[in-house]
Design brief:
This protein is an alpha/beta fold and 377 residues long. The chain contains 13 helices and 9 strands. It binds iron/sulfur cluster.
Length: 377
């Protein structure tokens, strides 16, 4: 299954641990002072599901130690839903009857004014695959405009070449999010029926190219439901450790997207239920204490409330997944997937405060903008 994975990413030797774990080994792993890949594999095992409460307590204590009683907040902004991709799980794949739209400068400024009124200082701007309607020159312009309004402008778009990432870094972009979707090459090929996204290894290397191109942060993740979640999460861990070792001054974060209802009606072969999602979050928090773990509005209210501060340290809120969604001139048929948590910002912040968590809209300043240089890259 993992033939095409590079050696540094291949978790094959640890997969057995997820099957052969016993209670004593799992408890030792949860309480380990220096957990690594072996401990992660044990905590991801089916048998570790019985220790969810212990894992939650440890994950919460570690989150408090490294992030205090805070929750970083951000919002996504869809710039374009033009896409020639054939991802079976996506509501805006090329064969869906989604209405296509791309923001022009005036519309982008309207969106940014609406986002600024909500006090956000961190933004993720999204597009589909590389298209004439939304290629690098367009993105560069959008980054420069967004950077006039808020401090931290990041992108979740198509993989690029290193010099293209540098152009965006020069324009004020600080970070990139690129989910591998799945690290199983066979399933990856089946899920991505056509388009540039079929380049499995090129996508794996994209976060590294982005950092070499001068971006400061890279967000990783697997789309939970596509393949064996234990295998994918072990790969995400390996990917994160590899980036942190190679670009040690960079920031790496991990998100936990689960497949949501979308135009096309794709049903996952490996559904991840709420207990399994919690187990994954707790296990990664215990093994990666300092990395921001991110949960979006894809997840329902009860899951987000339950995981806030218990592993998760960063969340989106008041999200729109339509093009032009913030300034009210959007069409629902442009949406990539349905969001689940639709609470407004005051309601969500009230929930955070009731749990003793302080919402943080700004934790970085534009003064530090500009391409990063990694000495050992
Ligand atoms: S997931 Fe991205 S690349 Fe794939 S069809 Fe959707 S927008 Fe296009």
């Amino acid at each position: 299954m993992t033939d095409q994975l590079p050696d540094w990413l291949n978790p094959a030797k640890w997969m057995d641990f997820t099957e052969s774990a016993d209670h004593r080994k799992i408890q030792t792993a949860i309480m380990s002072t220096n957990p690594g890949e072996r401990e992660l594999a044990l905590m991801l095992s089916p048998a570790a599901g019985e220790f969810l409460e212990l894992m939650a307590q440890r994950a919460q204590a570690i989150t408090r130690r490294h992030f205090g009683r805070t929750m970083a907040l951000y919002t996504p902004l869809y710039l374009s839903n033009f896409c020639n991709g054939g991802c079976v799980y996506c509501g805006i794949a090329a064969d869906r009857r989604a209405k296509r739209a791309v923001l022009d400068e005036k519309q982008l400024r309207h969106e940014m004014e609406a986002i600024t009124r909500m006090h956000f200082e961190e933004l993720v701007m999204l597009t589909g695959e590389r298209m004439p309607e939304a290629d690098v020159p367009y993105l560069r312009e959008c980054v420069a405009i967004a950077a006039e309004y808020i401090a931290n402008v990041t992108i979740e778009v198509f993989p690029m070449k290193e010099h293209e990432y540098r152009l965006l870094a020069d324009a004020g972009c600080t970070g990139v999010t690129i989910y591998q979707e799945t690290y199983d090459p066979v399933i990856y090929e089946r899920m991505h029926r056509w388009g540039d996204k079929r380049d499995f290894l090129g996508r794996i290397d994209a976060p590294g190219r982005a950092l070499r191109g001068g971006l400061r942060t890279a967000g990783l993740g697997a789309l939970l439901g596509l393949a064996d979640p234990r295998h994918d999460i072990l790969c995400v861990y390996r990917h994160a450790k590899h980036l942190l070792k190679t670009y040690w001054q960079a920031g790496v974060s991990i998100s936990f997207p689960r497949i949501r209802p979308q135009l096309g009606g794709f049903q996952p072969d490996h559904p991840v239920d709420e207990r399994m999602l919690a187990q994954i979050v707790f296990a990664l928090r215990i093994c990666l204490p300092e990395i921001p773990l991110v949960l979006s509005t894809r997840e329902p209210q009860r899951v987000r409330d339950g995981l806030a501060g218990v592993g998760i340290s960063k969340m989106s809120i008041a999200s729109k997944t339509t093009v032009g969604g913030y300034s009210d001139d959007s069409d629902e048929s442009t949406e990539q997937f349905e969001i689940s948590d639709e609470r407004d910002i005051p309601t969500f912040c009230e929930m955070l405060r009731s749990k003793g968590l302080e919402p943080v809209f700004k934790n970085w300043d534009a003064t530090y903008r500009g391409p990063a240089h990694y000495a050992n890259s």
